[in-house]
Structures are given as C-alpha cells and as structure tokens.
Amino acid sequence: MSTNGKYPHIDPLDWDTIQPHVDALLDADIDSEAVSGWLQRWSDLNAVLQEAGARIYRAVTENTADEAAEQRFNRFVEVIMPKASVAEQALKQKLLAVVDGAPGDDTALLMQRFRTEVDIFREENVAIESKLDLLGNQYNKIAGGMTVQWQGEEITIPRAQSLLEEPDRDSRQLVWQQMMDCFLTQRGALNDLYLEMLPLRRELAANAGFASYRDLRWLQLSRFDYTPADCFTFHDAIEAEVVPVASQIYRDLQSKLGVDSLRPWDVYADPHGQPLRPFSDVADLETGAQRIFDQVDPQLGNHFRAMRDGYLDLASRANKAPGGYCSGFPVSGHPYIFMNAVGTHDNLTTLLHEGGHAFHFMESQRQPLIWNQDGPMEFCEVASMSMELLSAPYLARDKGGFYSDADARRAYADQLRKTVLFFPYMAVVDAFQHWVYAEAPEAVTAADMDRRWRELTDRFMPDVNWDGLQNEQETGWHRKGHIFEAPFYYIEYGLAQLGALQVWRNALNDQTQSVAAYRSALALGYTRSLPQLFASAGTRFAFDRQIVGQLMALIQEQLAVLDA
Ligand SMILES: [Zn+2]
Description:
The chain is mostly helical. The protein has a domain at 15-121. The chain is built from 22 helices and 5 strands. The strands form 2 sheets. It has a 3-stranded mixed sheet, sandwiched between helices. A two-stranded antiparallel sheet has the order 1-2. A hairpin with a 2-residue loop joins strand 1 and strand 2. Helix 3 (67-98) packs across helix 4. It is globular. Bound molecules: zinc ion (ZN). Zinc ion (ZN) binds next to helix 13 and helix 14.
C-alpha cells in the first residue's frame, strides 16, 4: 500500500524524487485567486514527508537495535530533513511575497506562523539543527540502553520505575539506587552531551540575531499568547498555591507509610500496601481502555477501535526506546501510540493520555491543510490530559474499567494527587531551562547546573529528604529527556493541565456538554489562538494565582469525597 497519497512516485529517502514537486510549486503562477489550491498541493506534499518521518521514527523507537532502521532514520534526519527545510523556506517566501494578510479566516494564524518562521530562518542553522537532532537521539540511546539487575533478571528502567510502588521499603531503596547508579555511571557522558548542545543552541540564536536562545526558541515554538514573564507568574502561583497542597499530600503519604521522613524512593510508594495492577498483558489493557473510551464518548471510542488494527505498540521489551508518544500518519489518516506497558496503573494513564492525542489527530483531520491539524502544543496536552481526567469516573469494573469500587476511588484520588504533585516538578524543569539559556553565564559548567537544579528542587519540592544523596539530587536534570531533546517544551504540560482540570470541572457538572465542547475545540486544530481554543473547550487560558488556587481547592474538595 502506498502511503504517498497524491505523490505515488516519491521515495522519501531519495530527495531527487521530491525536488521536482518542490520545483513545480516554486514555478507555479500564484495570485490571490490560485493560492488556496497551491497551498493544498504543498500541504499534500508535506504530508507525504511527515508520514514517512513518522514511520521511520516508529521503526527506530520500536527497535533501537535495528541497524537498518537507524540508517533510514539517520538518512532522513541528515539528508532529507535539511533539504525539506530549505525547500519549505523557499515556498514560504514565495507565498508571503504574493499573499498580503491571509486567504481566509482559517489561515490567519498559519500566516503569522509562516511569517515568524521565515523571519527566524537561517540557512546556516539547518546543519546545526540536524546535528542537535542526532545528539538528542544519542540521549535516547544512552537512557534507552540502561538496565537494572533485579532478582536475577535484567529489567528495563520503566519496569524498575514500576517497582518503586512496591510496599517493601528496602526493595524500593535498592531498585531506586540501582536506577540512580545507571544514570550516575553516565554522568560524565550526559554532562558532555548537554555541554555540546548548549553552544550549538547559542549559535542558532546568534545566527538568527537573538541575544538568547530562549528568545529564538519562543518564536520557534510559536508562543504568541504568553511570555517568559508569564511563566514566572505561573511558577510563583505554583509556589504559593500548589506547594502547600503538595506538602499536605506528602505528609499524608509519610504518615500512611509510617516513615519518619520521605526519601526519594518513597514518593511513588503505594501506601495501600498493594499497588494497583489493572492488567497483566497488553490485550487486557487494550480492551479495558476501549470500554472506558466508549463511556466517555461513543465517537471517541470508535476512533480508538480503528487504531487497534496495527497502530498500537504498547508492551515494554528490551531495545525499545523509553517513554511513550503518539504520532500521526497524515496520508493514511491513522494516529499511532507507542509506550512501554508493564502492568501498572501509570501505564493505563499513559494510554488514556496518548489516546487523547490520537483523538485530537483524528478530530482535526477535517482541517484540509496539514499545518492546521493537531494544534499548538499547549492545547495538544489539553486534549490528552483531559482524557485522563474524563476517564477517571469509569475506572470501576461495573462502569467498564478495571477495578473494584474501592480501588477505582483510590485510583481516581491518586490521579488527582499526581496532578497536584506534577506542577512543582514542572516548575523545576521550566525554571531550570530559563536559567540555563537566559540567566546563566556562557561559561556555565555541569557543576553550576547541578547546583541550580538542587536549589530549584529545594524551592518547589521541599518535602523530599535527599540527605546524603547530593549526587542523585543534583543530577535530576539528567533524568529528564525533554531538557536534552526538546528544550523549553515542558511548561506546555502545566498550562495544559490547567485547561484539562477546567474540562474535568465542567464535566463534573455536565459530562455530555463538556465533552462536546472538548471535541469541538479539538476539531478546530491549529486554526485558532490559545485563548480561543481554551474558550471553545469551555475553559479559560490563564495561569495566575486565582485560577491555580481555585482548581487546587476543587481538587481538595473532590479528594475529601473520594477518600471518605
Ligand atoms: Zn502528551
């Protein structure tokens, strides 16, 4: 089956088969009349490359030891993407030379994005970006290759992570220490890797005429609706409104565990003694998730049903890249979910989360231009995080889910607690990067970064006792892949969580209406600004003390009911 749509003769690893189509677009006569058709042709060509890139990335993450897949990935990154990037630039320039304003309401934001991208594009940055992509993949290889010895078995990091829920404290400590040792063994390599990335990123900024990489990155991420100052407002709101609630959650955990202080291997522990194990193999995970999605919304359930035919890779195994993601194949019209499931409740949450991304992909397929599908990253995460919360009422077996009534309430409450605990960590990851790129001196060292990470964790997460574990504490930034691979891409999760909590708040009053608003916002794709998308979902794009405080109060209220 060809996945090339209207361009059946393209070989996505052979640029010579692509360039003629670019040339045809560049040579075309476009005036304001013909521009819509021309944009669509370009969009269709772009979709072919995006589909190819998604398939190649899928192969390399499904098996990190597949050398042929890695060669394809490297060729795509090193040869095809730079050429595509140059071609895109030329096409944007041609378009912007002809079009003043925007051809239709649904392209106004797209034109603003294009204009920004043209402004910040520098040909000399293309090679640097592709070098950074390869360095990012190196991080994946280092972190993905890590294994821990556990009871005579070699287990992956995601599997080891799941053991941190176990009731036996000594076991938790042992497995936690082994995981930390994996990263500490790579401490020098990871420091070197990051310190190799920093000057390259500064060079990108300097080439584009920016004083700091943050300024460039802001525009690269199309952040038109909020500023770095807003991020600091959000950090302060988290410190004032979330940290006290988080402290209470940690105090409760500490007393339930019966320990005199909360050590880093305790924070994931299950105080109920028996961690939730919703499924033993991924087939059960798949069918259970299906039943839950059907309850949230029949049409969303149908979307998931279609994915079960070859578009899910859920089980953890050796040589699989860590983490989970959802990508989309825009030509064949399928989303795809990748994750490392080992049987935990967290795995279920991940599938529900990635399901939300997949639904966003499918709902926004009605946008004819590829750039208008999906949406701004901040809203993509509203799509996914809302799905976690909208699913929470259906976790009980008699409602379609996996658990007894008591376990379902416990899972729901834990979900709300994790939502609270996420904000302070998010603030650490975000504040760390503001400091690295906009405040720290150019001669910043790994030791400086370690110190800054420690200060930030002390500020936002003061309840964890790291005594005697300075190395483990201060290298926390090594364990966050986004810091290496996707700089500044993290506040999105915090902003989106505020949106998702509002979707959930609305659903507590009227699920049908809230889900309908949610779906209509997803269908808008990337045609509207963040404030407009949030409004369409029945929520407000805000991140000050007031909204954060209101949502924390609602969570505490619901926790009191669920814990009763
Ligand atoms: Zn996500």
